[in-house]
Amino acid sequence: MNHNKLWLIGSALVTSVIVVLGVLLGIQPQLETMNAANASRAAVQATNTGHVALLARLKHDFANLDALTTTADALAESVPSGSMMPALVDQLDAEALAAGLTLTGMTVTEAVAYAPILPAAAAVPADGAAVPADPAVVPAVVPAAVVTTTAVNATNFAAFPLQVTVTGSYDEVLDFVARLQSGSRLFLVSGLDTVAAPALPGLVNATVSGLVYSLVAPAAASAG
Question: Which domain of life does the protein's organism represent (predicted)?
Fold first, then answer.
């Protein structure tokens, strides 16, 4: 009887050892392999989801390729790479002709690094009452908000100060200034001076001051 009990106990221990070894040597590696496969599948699914979204975006852009190209061409003309002064002179001639006045000259100075131009803030006295801005210093219309971006900075954007002189009626001069600010080349008007034209009744000689902009190539920006 005792011998049979020992045999049963020994058999149970051997069976337990076989089960444990089976788990460690057989089932456990399979479980680890399955978990690794599940993690890999999840990563592949996430990558595929990203590829599907990218493909949808590319299809959308391709469908609108003509519109994107037109927009890119207009932006390149508005702010070209380099000064593109001959094209600017042609534009000024065309705008002066459309306004009905005579373009008499243009002076361009050396390019300067871009700096954002912010509207001047009105002075506030100690009692808190706002003081009207001096119209001789601050433009009559000040933008309510100024939009800036770090993508445009002194390393990749340059400004060319210039003065354009024209002769015509005062209304024609104002029309010319409006055309400058809405033309194909980005032109920021910063000043307008007019004097009566000698021996030309009803006409004025006007000087329009402002800035035009251009992109700076990365290599040139690094060298500078």
Answer: Bacteria
N- to C-terminal Cα distance for the chain? Answer: 101
The sign of the CA dihedral 92, 149, 145, 142 is: negative
55, 75, 94, 110: CA torsion to nearest 10:
-160
The enclosing domain of 94 has a CATH number of: 3.30.70.60
Q: Is residue 129 part of a domain?
A: no
Q: Are residues 26 and 97 in the same domain?
A: no
- Is-above-0.90 flag for pTM? no
Residue 135 placed within a domain: no
Q: Which residues of 160-177 are buried (b: 16+ CB within 10 A; e: fewer)?
A: bebebebbbbeebbebbb
Structure tokens at 206: 């006007």
Structure confidence by residue, pLDDT tens digits, 54-70: 878 877 777 776 666 66
Token digits of residue 85? 């002064």
